[in-house]
Amino acid sequence: MTILKGTVKNKDKQPIEKVSIKYNNTGTITDKNGNYTIRIPYKEEITLVFSHISYKTSTKKYIAKSRNAVRLSVILISNTEELTEIVIKDNKRSAKGLKKIDVGVVKNVIGANAGVENILMTLPGVSNNNELSTQYNVRGGNFDENLVYVNGIEVYRPFLIRSGQQEGLSFINPHMVQNIDFSAGGFQAKYGDKLSSVLDITYRKPTEVGISLDLSLLGGSVTFEAPLVEDKLTSISSFRYRDNSLFVNSKQIETNFRPKFIDFQTLLSYDASDYLRFNFLGNFSLNNYNYKPISRSTRFGTVADPLELNVYYSGEEQDNYLTYFGAFSTEYEVNDFLTLTSTISSYNTQEEEHFDIAASYSLGEVDTNIGSENFGEVDFSEGIGSQLNHARNDLDALISNAQIKGKYKIDRMQLDFGIKYQKEDIKDRIREWEIIDSLGFSIRPPNQNINNNQPYQPFEGPLTPYQDIRVDNEVQINRISGFAQFSERLFMGNNEVWYNIGVRAHNWTVKANGISSKSQTTISPRGQFSIKPSWRKDMLFRVSGGWYSQPPSYRELRDFNGNINVDLKAQKSIHIVTGMDYSFKMWNRPFKLTTELYYKDLKDVNAYTIDNVRIRYRADNNATAYAQGLDIRLNGEFVPGSDSWVSLGYLKTEENINNKGNIARPSDQRIKFGILFQDYVPNLPNLKAYLNLVYNTGVPGGSPSYSDVYQFQNRLRDYKRADLGISYVITGAKRQYKTGWLSKFRELSAGLELFNMFDIQNSITNTWVRDVYSKTQFGIPNYMTGRVLNFKLSIKI
Questions:
Q1: DSSP structure class, residue 514
Q2: Out of 220-234, 294-308, 437-451, 754-768, which region has the weakest mean confidence (pLDDT)?
């Protein structure tokens, strides 16, 4: 016998999963990368049949002339021009409540942070009012409640990030992605212990040599991929560089600022045999954030009563975020039914946040008298003051884990199980203080019970900073978690049914500054049920939910003053999600309508405040909360051959802190509307346009430090943004040159990107300024980026 290997792809050179390959009574199917292996007789002519429900069947006659492994790769022709994003032939993913996102759309989507997270912002239930951040809220949750996996390995975000412009590059490299699955709630037990969502990314395994190059005014990337050592070893690596100067220079604050971010990732895979595979995923990233503000001028208020804030700065901020990540995994196919995967990984982040920034401000009324000589200028100052912010914060976190997972599959039944041990070691040094001065009088913290009637009566007590945190934390967290779940696909009459039941367990112990907590354990049962009736209409109904727990991370253990609560409990939530998928044709083109209704009941909630992207927890479990809403998404070929969608989400989420009554949570984004639209010129199909439009109603605008959030429930203005991209495909999958210099390129395109094309002023949070006379604090909006034009060039050889 001889081993025959190969890859099955479509005409766009994309691998096809689950292609049936048969001869006589022997057969196999392709994996998610389109690869297959089958044993064939030596020196005997056979007829191989390659078949797939979405492609035309192909037959190949073949004679193995060697006993060594030989290769045969095939290209299948599609039965239809319908996109896989719309015509879901594999109902299993939809039954699980997972949304499959087309990688091709991700590469073309327009946004300040183009990539996987940017396309999530167009989905219902997902929001973020900060275009410089890759973080996102899902159905009333916050940034820390989302699971992100790359090749089955959980990845993390930096700890000390305060603003979106500090973030730089996301861990997920869109140039290496093969598959994207996303769940906004009600996910399976095999995923981890978080409250909101799962983003499951799979990097691709190369089947041919290729180099991709992307260049723009915002930076660039280069990606190299190749099969090596007789296709047993494959490698894909990517280097990225980003410079956010274009966006920063469009903001209201005049700065001397050039943020630079670099990132390198690699994925190595080695097939030791048909049953044993080794993989290594590595990442290195460095974010340098050197920020020197100069001045700021912001007008706000109403037309009848406009105010203007003028600020002059001195000092600077120097932040560094250095991250290392490595993961080694082994996949062993014990037999035709059982597959075991073991993984060891380590994540290390070294973060420095150092700044001394002094700000002198004046807050005044603007002259609105049209006949006045000073029309439009400040004619009366309501507040004059200054503040000094200082920090020398350093954090070193090492997160290491080892896990083993298994999959046992017989026919239409599947059992998944796994166990994981994780150790977290965090060293955190906090030296941070703030002094606020108004008309020469130092403002003391509001939590000091001192009668203060300055400037009318003198005060002779000691002067203390408005905010002063001096803490050294050494924290170790040990975790053991495991899961088991059973899935089955069956038929009830002519109706197709799929169900999943599972349970997770998580035990953890915290030791902080020599103080140990008692060991805590959570149990999380979960389940899913889906049915596809045998109706003429293509519809699928599903219900999912369970008990979801989120054992605290270091960020959640730390309270406003930097102190650690070692006995903090896990936040808990009961999820109920019902949904429906309806696939149909309109204008003789495919469309799909997805609707989901959800409710979350939360207890032991760890309430928090948010400033830009910095989350500060109370760390006391003294709140309850709920979230409810409706998500609707319609996607399809609004333009023939191009996938677009429209999404609408409604959300209401409230919390009750210390039994004071319900108030809106910081993520209470009531209405979300998004459009991702792709188009092309009919007579010039290589000229393409992409529109990304988002509208979000305003969220609660936050509150000053140490204030009562019940007294600050005003909302920010609605968030509105439209990004437009225009590109021309010089050469690509449908337009290849056989001669000339263009024949060297598999893909070559150039285009322009117009971010925030209507130049709308969106605010992410407020700066709070005190008027010494009325003792009123004004919330001055901090606006995001303005209109920016970018040039982009993409090359693949």
A1: T
A2: 437-451
Q: Are 524 and 532 in contact (CB under 8 A)?
A: no
Residue 437 C-beta-side C-alpha neighbours within 13 Å? 13
Question: Which of 450-464, 679-693, 720-734 has the lowest average pLDDT?
Answer: 450-464
Say how far apart CA 249 and CA 268 lie, in whole Å: 39
The tokens of 605 are what?
């909630």
pLDDT at residue 303 above 70? no
Q: Enumerate residues 6+ apart whose C-beta is below 8 A from 535.
A: none
Nearest to 153, CA basis, from 355, 418, 334: 418
> Which of these ranges, 197-201, 604-608, 769-773, has the smallest mean pLDDT?
769-773
Residue 157 dihedral angles phi and psi, to the nearest 5°: -115, 160
Q: Which of 453, 342, 454, 455 is nearest to 402 (CA)?
A: 342
CA-closest candidate to residue 199, choices 118, 268, 114, 132: 118
The strand pairing partners of 579, in sequence order, are 542, 596
The two counts, helices (H) then strands (E), for the chain are 5, 45
Is the pLDDT at 88 greater than 60, yes or no?
Answer: no
Give the strand order in the sheet containing 46-52: 26-29, 20-23, 46-52, 55-62
Question: Counting every residue, how long is the chain?
Answer: 797
| Minimum mean pLDDT range among 11-20, 192-201, 451-460 | 451-460
Burial group, residue 133, by CB count within 10 angstroms (0-12, 13-18, 19+):
buried
* Region of residue 587 (phi > 0: left; psi between -120 and 50: alpha; otherwise: beta): left
* pTM, entire model: 0.83
Quick one: DSSP state of residue 42? B
